[in-house]
Amino acid sequence: MPGLIDAKDTDMKYLLLIVSDPTLPSPEPGDEGFDEYMAAWTRYTQDMVEAGAYGGGEALQGPETATTVRHEAGATTLVDGPFAELKEHVGGYYVVDVDTLDDALEWARRLPVGTGAVEVRPIFPTDGF
Amino acid sequence: MVARNAGIDRLRRDAAAGRRVAAQARVLETGVARDEAVEDPDGRAAALVAEDAEVGDERLRLLLLCCHPSLSRETQVVLTLRLAGGLTTQEIASALLLPDATVQQRIVRAKRKIRAARIPLTIPADLAERAAVLTDVLALIFNEGYVAHSAAAGTLTRVELADQAIRLTAAAADALPAEPEPAGLLALQLFHRSREAARTDEEGALVRLADQDRTRWDRAMIARGYAVLGRALAMRRLGPWQVQALVAAEHTRATTDWARIVRYYDLLIGMTPGPVPRLSRAVAVAEVEGAAVGLAAIDAIEGLDGYHLLHAARADLLERAGEPAAARLAWERAAALATNPAEIAYAERRRRACGA
After folding, report:
1. What is the Cα Rg of chain B in Å?
2. What number does CATH give the domain A25-122?
3. pLDDT digits over B234-280, tens only?
C-alpha cells in the first residue's frame, strides 16, 4: 500500500509496561528452565534491536524494593512501597521505536511473559511541542 | 411522505459516501478533526491517503480502523456508524438509545486515541482476526436495529439502523472476498430483514415465525440471501455466522426440516460454546422429539435465567405439554424480563391466553 503512510511522519515511540504478579513463580538461577527463560528474553531483545525498533528496556527489582515520593501542594513525603498497592506490579519495560500502534502491539504480543499484562502507551512525540 | 424523505436522505448519504470515506480517512490521519481543533501547521500529513486507492479499499481501511481491536466494543459500534455509516451523532444516539453527549464523547475520545496512539489506517496482512472483530460489530449493529431493545422515536428508526448495518456488512463482504464470515452475516441479515413486514401485527405485537403471512416475505431479498450464502459456503471454511445463516435459510423453506436445524445448532455449539445456542437447539429439539424433551433440554441450561427468550420458549413448550398454569407463570416472567415493547406485548397476550 504505497503512499498510505508518510515515512517521514512515522517517528513514534511506545512504552511497553510489563505488569505481573510477583508472587507467581518465575524461574530462578539454577532452576530447571531458567536458561531457556533467560534465552527467550535475550532473543526478544536481539530481535527488537535487529528490527531497528529497540529504544531501551530494563527489568526492575521487586516492588518490596520500591520507595514512592509523593508530591502534594509543594511538599513531599516518602512512602515505603510502590505507588499503588496492587496485586500486580510493573516488572520491567521496553521502549519500542515503530511506525504505528499495530507494530507496538505486535511487540507486546511477542514478549515472553508467561502470565501478566503489557500496557502499551504512546510516548509524546518530541517534535511539535 | 416520511418514508419518501428518509429515502431521499439515504440517497444523499450514499452519494456522499465516497467523498466522506476519503475525507474521514484524511481527517483521522492528519489530526485535523473538525470537532477538535488540532493544528497541523506545515500540512505535511495532508495527503497520507493514496489518491489512486480503490474506494473499496479505502472503505475497508476505514471499517477496520473503526473496529480496531484496541478500541472498546461500544466505541467500535459508534465509530463505525459515524465514520463508515455517515450517521450524525444525534442519529446514532437515538438509534442506540444513548444520550447525545455520550455518543459525542465516545467519538471524540476515539478520534483522540486514534491520532495520539497512531492507530494505522492499513489493511493488515493477516485479515482473519480483524475481519472477525468487524463482523461481530456489524452483527451487533444489526441486532440493535432488528431485535430492538425498545422502540425509538427520533430521526432514525430501528429498521433504518438494521438497513444501515446491511449496507455496511455488504460493503465489508465485498471488500473481504476471501473471508466467508462477513458474507455469512450478510446472508443472515437478509433472511431476517426479508420477514420485516410479516413480523408484527397491526397492534405492533410480534408474530412468531410459524404464524407469519409468508406472502409478505420479501422473496427477492431471500434470493439474494441464498446467493450470498452460497458464495460464502463455497469457500469451505464454515463459521458461526454461516451456520446461523443456514438456520435462517431453512426457515425460509415451505416446510422446515427441524432435524437439520438441530444438526446446525450442534455445529454452532461446537464453534461458540455458550448458553444461547443451546437454548435455540432445545427449541429445535422440541419440534423433533416433542415438548417434554425440549423442556428437559431447556431446564438443563445454566446461566440464562435472566434471558426473556428462555422463559418464552419454556412457556410455549409448557403450553404444548398441557401445563397452562406453569406456562402462565413463565409468560409472566418473559414479559417482565423483555425490554422490547413488541416482545412484551406478545408475552402478555400469550399469558392472557393461558387463562387465569
Report:
1. 22
2. 3.30.70.1060
3. 999 999 999 999 999 999 998 899 999 999 999 999 998 889 999 99
